[in-house]
């Protein structure tokens, strides 16, 4: 059995900060997508993230192995599938159900793998805190306004695929060796660039150059690029935390990514948070403190 490392407090902080930065990346990417396609915004952001990851890997000089390369490639595929299914699920199903469902799967599956398969152990209070984080992730993912879209079997399927895709991504990244450093990050982001570029190419063939018209919007382009920078930072923190140990902690805390989005929406866009989201924020912060001290 693998017990929690003495530095579990550091891991909890890395997990929470990574989640918040992921959410901030989503926020700026979403702002950019108001004036350009979500696909173009994602492609620009991923391209910047690859550049940042490449610089970090070159400076770090990690050890490469075929097993790490394969795991990273699989992680990239899982992540790309998860993102596609998530957006597709939101398009055909009620966001108020699909989004929390994806967050729940993303939180629970890595925790089960970490505890049941990898043998990670926690104190009784630690298990309570992990459960509280899962609940907080569900509350944070519930949007303030509900729409009238019906929940269909297709929406359920896409939401499940998205959650499992994200969960598979973090599990695969966790299995890469510590000696590989940030190399898995560079590889999985490169997979994302290939996927997004291919999708953009298909759309260009179908719709013409209008698909790239969004790059003329300077402000939106800057927002997309900044979102990519934040994506790189968040993933660097995630990989460091996973290599330090505790897939369960990192997986559960990383599902709090809506925290960064809703906080920036509050500060920048002056959006009001629902009572449910406020409870989720308080629960997330309190449970994270418990994990950091346990």
Question: Can you give a write-up of this model?
Answer:
There is one protein chain. The protein is an all-alpha fold. It has one domain (2-293). The protein is 77% helix and 1% strand. Strands 1-2 form a two-stranded parallel sheet. The longest helix has 27 residues, at 66-92.
Please report the number of helical segments: 11
Helix content: over 70%
Total number of beta strands: 2
Q: What structural class do you assign from the helix and strand content?
A: mainly alpha
- Strand ordering within the main sheet: 1-2
Estimate nothing, just give the exact number of structural domains. 1
Order of helices and strands, N to C?
A: EHHHHEHHHHHHH
- Quote the average pLDDT: 84
Kindly estimate the percentage of residues that lie in beta strands according to DSSP: under 5%
Low-confidence stretches: 1-6
Overall geometry: globular
The whole-angstrom Rg is 18 Å
Q: Report how far the terminal alpha carbons are from each other.
A: 18 Å
The major β-sheet equals: 2 strands, parallel
Write the layout of secondary structure elements.
Elements: E1 2-3, H1 8-32, H2 38-60, H3 66-92, H4 95-117, E2 120-121, H5 124-140, H6 153-175, H7 183-207, H8 218-244, H9 247-254, H10 258-267, H11 275-293
Parallel strand pairs: 1-2
Write out key terms for the chains shown.
77% helix, 294 residues, mainly alpha, 11 helices
Summarize it:
This protein is an all-alpha fold. The protein contains eleven helices and two strands; from the N terminus they run E-H-H-H-H-E-H-H-H-H-H-H-H. It has one domain.
